[in-house]
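Folding follows sequence. Below is one example:
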Amino acid sequence: GFTYYLGDTVTPAKTELKGYRLDLAFSYPLARAILWGVDGKFVNLDINKRNEAIYAVTADMGVIWLVSKFVRAAAVGHNLVPISRPELPVQSAVGVSFGRDTGFQAAADAVVNYLSKDNIVATYHAGLEFMAGDILALRVGYTFDQVLDDNQFITTGIGLVAPRVGIDFGFKQNMTITDDRYFSLVLRLFTG
């Protein structure tokens, strides 16, 4: 995977990030209903306001349990090779989703950010997705973010999903600091 970043962060101060991330991911079924995966990442980010850069290699690892046809649970660790940067902290997450891949889904998760030994905070997400015609994804979500001083966000998105390609557009509005908003555009290519 390839991700290009261009935008602002709020923490630790409003900072412009520009750069890219390369991902190489693998997954393997450990049992009939348990899937394991790992993602190696190379990150190259310029932090313009502080005249700094991040060049780092790290990895994510996770497991998904297919509880039933309509229920899935997951646990994941992010940035498990520590980068020691507030922009890319070590994280652990747990989540659950209900629904069908080709219909309506509801999901919730909690992400714990290990910013330092004395600064461990969580972010909570909940969202809904509806797949129309097995190709058009409509999404809405809510985030409560303790990393950003208990800021609350509303998110919306739309995506087109085909067998080999996906295009997603998203919008995130901070409800606590109303002039803080994000737009995202993601192009995904699938193989296999």
Remarks:
- The mean pLDDT is 88.
- Residues 84 and 116 are 9 Å apart (CA to CA).
